Queue: 2 jobs
Job 1
Amino acid sequence: MDEERNLVERGGGYVVLLIVTAVLFFGWRTGLVGGLGETEGQTAVSSTSSLATDSLAANAADQQPTFDFATGDLPVISDNSLDPNPNPHTFQGERPSHAFQMYVVKRGDTPNGIAERFGIKTETLLGGNPHLSQEASLLQTDMELVILPIDGVLHDVQPGDTLEGIAEEYDVAVEDIIAYADNHLEFPYRLYPETQIMVPGAVREVFVWTPPDLASVGGTSREGSGIKPLIVGTGTFQYPVGGRNFSQFYWYGHPAIDIALGEGSSVVAADTGTVTYAGWNVYGYGNLVVVNHGNGFETFYGHLSAISVTPGQIVYKGNVIGLSGNTGNSSGPHIHFEIRVNGVQDNPCWYLGCG
Ligand SMILES: [Zn+2]
């Protein structure tokens, strides 16, 4: 009996199993049971999307560089995209760095002597020392001079300066300025205010003060377009002082002669003429007398301690016009004496003989 029941139970089990199998099979065919079908569909989709991904990756590979090097070799790319204040002036050039010798002027020094000692042109003393070209008396004892290493001008860079402008100002080639190594000029040749640029071969222009003409002095009359002086000189000149102790001769930066002598010594007119200036001069001459000789010549007498003539006054050759002194830019009592021909400073020694 046990065996029969077992058979029946076993047979019922088969039937149940058969029914379940049949239902599953039917359901699969009609889609009522979606489990298997969905799973298979997903597999298919996922397979397709995998292909699509591969295809995109292939396209991307065409457009972007492939990085197949070791991580340690990765290039460092600075990214300042988050910088709140990006600086458009990314060029940071080197600033000029010049090395100079300094020289302290001693008693008895002459510009020519100093220049010769350092192997530069006398004009180059002006190139390194701009204040000198604005003074009527050049060298003062204990004054510190910048000695440039080569002939040229040391230019103080001003805001707005350009290389082209500087080259034009000194009449030199832009390339010569760039080529000077210590200027540290690299493309795009940025200039920095408050630095100095060496301008090789340049000569600094000398400031020339011009006295008023005879018309503004008074007591003069006009004839045609010209101005008639009150008197015409002899055309020859005598020394304005008794001494011959020259402290500075004529050169580009000092178009005059300096004669050292005790303060209060008499200074006389070198030739007959009309006084056109008698007073203080702010350009370094101190107390100054200018005489116009009516023949194209003018004479200048600087650094006086006293003046004894007035503008418009006639003076004759040898008349006292004042006393020697140490006024203005002066390194000691001396007379600064200029002879100008039609406004151009000439070497007084050519007229006086300084030997
Ligand atoms: Zn002088």
Job 2
Amino acid sequence: MTGEHSPVQVAVDSAAMGSASASSPGGVPGRSAALPGGIEVTGLSKTYRRVVGREISLTAALADVSFTVAPQEFVSVIGPSGCGKSTIMKILAGLLDPSSGSVKVSGKPVEGPGPDRGCVFQFPGLMPWKTVVDNVVIALEFAGVPKRERRRRAEEYVDLVGLDEFKRHHPGELSGGMQQRVGIARALAIEPVVLLMDEPFGALDALSRTRMQDELLRIWEQTKKTVLFITHSIEEAVVLSDRVLVMGNGVITADVPIDLPRPRSRHRLLSDPRTLELMRDLERLIGHSDDHEPEA
Ligand SMILES: Nc1ncnc2c1ncn2[C@@H]1O[C@H](COP(=O)(O)OP(=O)(O)O)[C@@H](O)[C@H]1O
Ligand SMILES: [Mg+2]
């Protein structure tokens, strides 16, 4: 069994995917994942079906994924392209139905998108004809926030992400990093208990990316949301997270606590030998999941 993971598999290789499944207890003692802001993913699987000509093509994207995130915990998911990270996110966001298993947020089953979950994706998809503040206002309108409250709240969150001087600017006048800040302000403004972030800094240049990591640390310390964060970057995962879930080929292969002190600053962490040790551990674990080697 090579375990090669092609983008579209015609036959479902369930034996390869199911066996390495690791159920992660996770969480923070005393903070149940069933409380407001907690996430519980149990036995989640997803097989995509596509009709190609006269054949049905099946892709097993997730096989028996289980993990919990405690209220206010910051958990990253890391793993190679195509291993199923975005599929977990879309199911949690309520944009996609699982094939089996359950996802709960705040102890309640996810049945569709809702204002309890704010989503930030790689590209913020702003409306170019609207100002920064109006891009946030429109999201509040969709979320059903009363009209009289929308502008005040939008301005508050645009300030929080450090764009106070750019409120009346249009997206085309902003850098990629600034546009992504608007995306974060928009997700936070609906005041969700959970923030779902799928490679939010993946399209940024290296400098903007590290700046945004510091910004996110600051915002998270201030707002204390539960965050589920997807990234390709080991350094980013270590700097930001309380815990890192390693994924490979549709399953979670490791659950690594990041025992670094908070409040954190990226600069300080990168001169801490413990940070480097954790990065090396993760690199090794991801290497294993990339090779699809069964864990000893
Ligand atoms: N809508 C879809 N239809 C068919 N296959 C899909 C679809 N979305 C994703 N996939 C496949 O499912 C697997 C996991 O995808 P995804 O969750 O996007 O991975 P990741 O975010 O880790 O890169 C990949 O093999 C991908 O090609
Ligand atoms: Mg993805």
